[in-house]
Amino acid sequence: MTSRDRILTRVRTALAGAPQAPEISRDYLSTHTADDPAIVLDLLHENLADYRAIVHRTRADGLPGLLARLLDERGSRTVLAPAGLPPQWLAGATGVRKVEDTPTATAQELDAVDSVVTGCAVAIAETGTIVLDGGADQGRRRITLIPDHHICVVRAPEQVVASVPQALPRLDPGRPSTWISGPSATSDIELDRVEGVHGPRTLEVVLVES
Amino acid sequence: MSGTFVGMPSFPVAAGVAVTDERLRGNLRRATHTIRDKRAVAVGELADWGALREAGKEIKDRTLRGLDGYLVELEAAVTAAGGVVHWASDADEANRIVVDLVRATGEREVVKVKSMATQEIGLNEALEAAGIAAFETDLAELIVQLGEDRPSHILVPAIHRNREEIREIFVRTMSEWGRPAPEGLTDSPAELAEAARVHLREKFLRAKVGISGANFMVAETGTLVVVESEGNGRMCLTLPETLISVVGIEKVVPSWRDLEVFLQTLPRSSTAERMNPYTSMWTGVTDGDGPEAFHLVLLDNGRTATLGDEVGRQALRCIRCSACLNVCPVYERAGGHAYGSVYPGPIGAILSPQLRGIRSEVDASLPFASSLCGACYEVCPVAIDIPEVLVHLRERVVEQGGKGHRLEKAAMKAAGWVLNHPGALGAGERLASKTRKGHPKKLPGPGGRQWGQSRDLPQLPAEPFRDWWKKNRA
């Protein structure tokens, strides 16, 4: 008998005679927030900031200028941009060398990059979370992990939802996803929260209102 | 379970030692009170907490009732997405599978995401015996590993250590494992975290094999979910060429939608956050992104036996949030090590004796490691009635017999007779009050001494209550 058969047989024996489980009652709320895009966006802003992400807001035409300023203020000389990032986003960042994430790029090479700029798949206001799913403007998981500075652009209102239950149907389970709520943090030393252990120590989120 | 706990004394003995350790009690008290207060605030933000808790309970019950079907569905989905599924009946088999998989890569070291399942089976020890170095990358696990210590909490395994102790461990041992601690390291949490970052980074960037557990596995889609804070999980899950996940069979949930419940209840219950900093989800392998090979090891190791116990099976609902530890008056004083298992606290007191059986001294003592106050049940996000299971398991321990239990039975029988005879009770109470100055603080006699090992006798009042009432109120 294989272990697979053994385990499945044990499960069936253990459950013999057990009553059927009831249907799942889903009478919890699908959102805890008023159905108003402005309120939802403000809540996203507030909760991102509460988790010590640095939040900026702009209109679409102000985005290139803002990104250029953020990279400049950070002193970044190299910026990683996923292949599908709209080129005009970084059009203003003339003093910064753009690096592509090629399949042969090693983790060590990524470690030498100053900043990474990506889009996102969806952002969740109630939890202050941005979700990346490997879309063309987000790139592979490792590019938002290794560099120490991540700027993530969120397009409002179309990419912003209020709650976790509203976010999941927008995501394709077949794609790898990374949910980010503030920068990397640990509370393992006397439960004191310290930002930045292994992921980017600085997370800047740009909310772009159309 | 893990070899590190073999030979542990029973709970009353271990707890008796732990409660005299003032530094430990101070560290624990501060930590558990901080996190339980924060948790209450995070939970209070959701008006529908009760409904979410009920749904979480029902999803898990439904999973357990149909576990065979969901496991087969999960296996098919993971395989279709390019993963390889292995089944392990017990710890030895799981360790053998993982060792063989690592050997097949030709690598001699692995990086690990914190995982209760791999601790439970003693994977690090098995890898070491096979000549493979396993590096724990969660900060708390790193502190435990470097300190040659044992974890004492599900979520924050080094909760029993304060910053001075952590600094000392880093300075003393980091150089033996890789990059040494920086010169002049102080005990500020920021500096200690930075030391861990630098120490582990060189391991992440060269690692070819990662080992993880998972918080959830979605049967419908084959998706695995890891919830974490530091980013060490993301490093281990995405940078290596091979990823091996060892996951208990009870971690499956039926549908993608079910995650909407647990992604709301788990972070708030465990770290008291609206959402933990990082959650990773992956389904099999993805071309050009992440590991090229993914192996899922489905672990039984006592879970099916637990499933067969009508009352006890609810322990398998557990999502390892650790909220029950932080509110438990017994855990707060005794600490995690006293439970003699990788699962400490109230959930450990019902999970360990079910996974391992109740034949050893430590496992037979665990159902008694509780005051039955019920705080654990109240905070449990999947509504496990821990007191109910404790009482149920006590019954099984008593049925199994043993000297202490025979004496307890005799004492209860005698007490029953006295309580049924008010005259005898009154006379006894009066006599006891009159002679109270000469009473011992501990119960004397064979059996009594054993019972009294962890219990002081209460002080008797100067006169029985009924006499006082007659004099003053009647």
Low-confidence stretches of chain A: none
**Terminal residue distance of chain B:** 61 Å
**Number of distinct beta strands of chain A:** 12
Oligomer: heterodimer
What structural category do the secondary elements of chain B indicate?
A: alpha/beta
The number of helical segments of chain B is 23
Tell how many strands the DSSP assignment of chain B holds. Answer: 10
Helix content of chain A: 10-25%
Q: What structural class results from the helix and strand content of chain A?
A: alpha/beta
Shape of chain A: globular
Low-confidence region ranges of chain B? none
Strand content of chain A is: 15-25%
Strand numbers in spatial order across the main sheet of chain B: 1-10-7-4-2-3
> Mean of the pLDDT scores of chain B?
92
Order of helices and strands of chain A: HHEHEEHEEEEEHEEEE
Largest interface: A-B, 69 and 97 residues
* Overall spatial form of chain B: globular
The count of helical stretches of chain A stands at 5
Q: What fraction of residues of chain B sit in β-strands? A: 5-15%
How far apart lie the N and C ends of chain A?
Answer: 62 Å
Question: How would you sum up this structure, described in words?
Answer:
The complex is a heterodimer of chains A (210) and B (474). By secondary structure, chain A is of the alpha/beta class. In chain A, 23% of the residues lie in helices and 23% in strands. Chain A has 5 helices and 12 strands. Chain A has helices spanning 3-15, 37-50, 63-74, 107-111, 164-167, and strands at 54-59, 78-80, 97-99, 115-118, 122-124, 129-132, 149-156, 160-161, 177-180, 185-186, 194-195, 202-209. In chain A, the strands form 3 sheets. Chain A has a 6-stranded parallel β-sheet, with helices on both faces. In chain A, strands 8-5-6-9 form a 4-stranded mixed β-sheet. In chain A, a hairpin with a 7-residue loop joins strand 10 (185-186) and strand 11 (194-195). Chain A is globular, with a radius of gyration of 21 Å. Chain B is an alpha/beta fold and 474 residues long. In chain B, the strands form 2 sheets. Chain B has a 6-stranded parallel β-sheet, sandwiched between helices. Chain B has a 4-stranded mixed β-sheet with strand order 8-5-6-9. The longest helix of chain B is centred in the N-terminal third of the chain and has 23 residues, at 22-44. The interface between A and B is large, with 69 and 97 residues. Strand 9 of chain A pairs antiparallel with strand 9 of chain B.
